[in-house]
Amino acid sequence: MLGRKPRDKAQIPVALTEPRSPMAESFRTLRTNINYAAVDREIKIILVTSPHMGEGKSTASANLGVVLAQTGQETLLVDCDLRKPMLHKIFALANQKGLTNLLTETLLLEELVQPTQQDKLQVLTSGPIPPNPAEMLASRRMANLLDELRSSYERIIIDTTPIEAVTDAIVLSSQVDGVLLVVDSGRTPIQIARDARDKLARANAHILGIVLNRIKRDSNGYYHYYYYHYSER
Predict the structure, then answer these.
(1) Distance CA 199, CA 193 (A)
(2) Which CATH superfamily is domain 9-229 in?
């Protein structure tokens, strides 16, 4: 098993540390809405991205993974942000080896996934940052890995790069069952969010919805996540 790093309590997902908080409840609502979206089609692999850096996509990925695992589903978080990976920091995990090693070496998935504090939740960290992230994510080996994950886990959450910076998220978006776009409600211009949504649509991605981050909704100063469904109709 890969070694753990000292844990920074500030980065542990709120769905673990404060399960009764309004923010944790927001993620459970998000989970419910995703389940409703799965009525007509299987939503097993979910990609999480954002228009820009710093909008909370990795935090959203981590908390969504926690609340899915809390229902008893075997869940895997995969860090496909091969430029600025964050999941190993959020869960205080080692990152000497991970996804990039799995794609370039003869290793088994079970050798690289790491457990978390949440039962039923594992993480596949990014591994060493490669010189060619987009090409690696577009490779046949990545496509084969996604097929392997489908047969090994009930839910897979993929945290990937922001859309406006590089093409990595677009490359993966058509290979997953659904995409969540995380948007900072107080910082991201509406047009930038629309541009990101349109790029995903042009790639034939199945956009599940928008997650609005940092909506201040009560006098205690809590910031919430709010989900709404996207439809082309």
Answers:
(1) 10
(2) P-loop containing nucleotide triphosphate hydrolases (3.40.50.300)
